[in-house]
Automatic annotation (TrEMBL):
Residues 16-111 form the Transposase InsH N-terminal domain. This is Transposase. It comes from Leeuwenhoekiella parthenopeia. The lineage of its organism: Bacteria, Pseudomonadati, Bacteroidota, Flavobacteriia, Flavobacteriales. InterPro entries: Transposase_InsH_N (IPR008490). PANTHER family: TRANSPOSASE, TRANSPOSASE DDE DOMAIN-CONTAINING PROTEIN.
Length: 198
């Protein structure tokens, strides 16, 4: 016999978001790996002592991270996207019946912080991800977009590589190790500054 599903909304519901997000889900793993409590100390000076409470800075930076990971540049689309995804709601600490911040709140909060705050947050999050084993330096990806060239076919020339592939790769790996070690050194200095300020 053919079944037919009829949806009837329940008035009362026993629902836990943590039970609906699989343990292997990326955002669940990210939530467990990242402790962004350092943001309260880092952003405290940018807020007044009276008035209406702002968006939680941890939620704001998690939303920025989601926007980056999901390739969403519009704050309006970001909030719309997050409201439809249970794993993202779990990651940012909202339940299904809680209203997310307005997109204009995200835009205003982004203008509140200087560039140095975003850089230090990025560095700290990067360090936390490396320590949690979520990031390694084995693979590099480069994003590009095809652009139609405006060139004459008569001016094309055959290009020959200046060096062999193996020697080029050795040089690139050496430079990559140097950059990685300098980034880690800079990240540790910033981490020491932020933890000593706390």
């Amino acid at each position: 016999m053919q079944g037919k599903k009829v949806y009837q909304e329940q008035l009362f519901n026993s629902f836990q978001l943590s039970e609906r997000v699989p343990v292997t889900n990326f955002y669940r793993r990210l939530k467990e790996a990242l402790s962004l409590d350092f943001l309260y100390q880092l952003t405290r000076d940018f807020y007044g002592s009276s008035g209406q409470k702002s968006i939680d800075p941890v939620v704001f930076f998690k939303l920025c991270l989601v926007g980056y990971l999901e390739n969403i540049i519009s704050d309006r689309k970001l909030i719309e996207h997050c409201s439809m995804r249970l794993d993202i709601l779990y990651f940012i600490g909202y339940d299904i019946d809680e209203e997310l911040p307005w997109h204009s709140t995200i835009s205003r909060t982004r203008q509140l912080f200087p560039e140095e705050v975003f850089e230090s947050v990025f560095t700290k999050v990067f360090i936390l991800c490396v320590e949690a084993g979520m990031v390694s330096g084995h693979t590099q990806a480069i994003d590009s977009a095809p652009v139609k060239a405006n060139a004459s076919m008569d001016t094309l020339e055959l290009k020959v590589p200046e060096e062999e592939l193996e020697s080029h790769l050795r040089r690139v790996r050496h430079i990559s190790r140097w950059i990685k070690s300098s980034l880690f050194a800079k990240a540790k200095r910033i981490n020491q500054i932020t933890t000593s300020a706390a």
